[in-house]
Records
---
Amino acid sequence: MHEMSLMESVIAIVCEMAQLNGASAVKSIRLDVGVLSHINPDSLLFCYEAVRRGTIAEHAALEINRIAGEGWCLDCGKTVPLDERFGACPDCGRYQVQATAGDELRIKDMEVI
């Protein structure tokens, strides 16, 4: 379950940035998680409950936005939707597709008090 270490890193970054900016508490956190990232949102939520305790983010709400997979097909020369990493182009069926979106884990924003 790599989600535990990922969420520990997210909380560490959020708390550090909040404290550097003089905040006393984090009210909410929004994450972008790509569908190609191999990160399970339910596991992230489970880990979030464990790692936020005792931090200034202890009472913060967590929102996870799923980002669709997208790639650039070198054979078609166009942007196509991707359901899996290294998947075939849905238009031509070839595998010369470079992923351009959907593999991210990003702190989109946070609200502090």
---
Amino acid sequence: MEGLYVVLALVALVVITIAKGVRIVPQGSKHIVQRLGKYHKTLTPGMNVVIPYVDQVPYKVTTKDIVLDIPSQEVITQDNATIIANAVAYINIVSPEKAVYGVEDYEIAIQNLVQTALRSIIGEMSLDSALSSRDLIKAKLKEGISDDIADWGINLKTVEIQDINPSQTMQAAMEEQAAAERQRRATVTRAEGEKQAAILEADGRLEASKRDAKAQVVLADASREAIERVSSAIGEQEMPVMYLLGERYISALSELSQSDNAKNVILPADLPQAVKGLLNR
């Protein structure tokens, strides 16, 4: 009976030993093997054999892309404006032994590096430049931290700026500034419109005056020509003038009789004498 127990114990020991000596590493992972407390090797995906009870696997590292959220932080720009910025970084572990032995916690270390680099980059930019230069910030950010994390066996695939917005105080100030600018432009536009209207009105009056003057010249020429023709037809110096004045006198009386304020119009009985009276003849 005792012999059976011994056999079972030996079988259990063998099974446990084989289980400890065979390591199955899934795809997308790498395992770190320490021998007697010291790094020995890195197990790749598939079946691996280690020395039971001597080799240990204290670290299991993923080789898939890791997404790191970079928390929001306040950043001061070159012109002393406060903005809120955060980002997201995509990393990939290429050397697991460097990642686990090179830094205590590589995720926290990378987050701090990105935050520090982000403050430094935006601190050298003006507010307007920072708000409109996401691609530039991204490029400088990647360039600034890629070499640092490469020492930890980590590759920075990309880093994206998620949000970069002015603080609430700055937003209020910017909205007030924008409203003042719009009000200024409206005032300038209104003043320009009034100026153009005044210029156009003056041009209109000038053009009308010129045309009135030309019209008077034309009328004078027409009157002179009429007098010459009448004089030529009648052959007297006084009668043509009397004729034209009488014609215009009657025309004026006709217009007066058609006006709204005219109630009664009395025509002189002796029209030629009335015209002569106008000429003091």
---
Amino acid sequence: MSLWAIVPVKPLRRGKSRLSEILSEDERTNLNHQLFVHTIEILKEVDAITDILVVSRDSDVLTEARDLQVRTVTENGTPELNAALRRATLFSKNFSTEGVLIVPADLPLMTPDDVKAFLDARTEPPCIVLAPDRRRQGTNLLFTTPADLLTFSYGKESFDRHIELAKEKKAQVVIVENERIALDLDLPEDYALLNSAKAIPVFIEI
């Protein structure tokens, strides 16, 4: 059995557009790059994760992912996160995975121990484990077993939707509350919160 982590990554120059009022395009590109590398490094320290798969339509991201010795899938066609995750999940299922962990590349405070504790909460299939964002609206970490249990529904209010979708499949739902996982970096107020708490990790040098 194997457990795959899937990391969707937007083109580095286009990600974090909602921070455009406080960061220039070059600053956001640099931030996105460092968050991406940070995410891969964190996941590589988690023993339960046997493979990491990066999904992106940014050729530079895919090249760097391979340099970091992780698998890649090129996102093609109409850009759409849920469809890309579906394709990546079906790809990973070819390798008889125990399940998949979806990890956005914008959780600057997440640690390997956070991911380990999150995965320790999983149960026998069918099961999903979720960690919400700090507004309890979005889904920041999601583990699902079997891998193709859910039709992903990322977007506004995805946390509640994923719970309902899992219940429709009669899967057990486990919710993990973790302040570090909950803090994603989408809006200027997220950035201000990290800055005011002097919690911007040292790796983010913009």
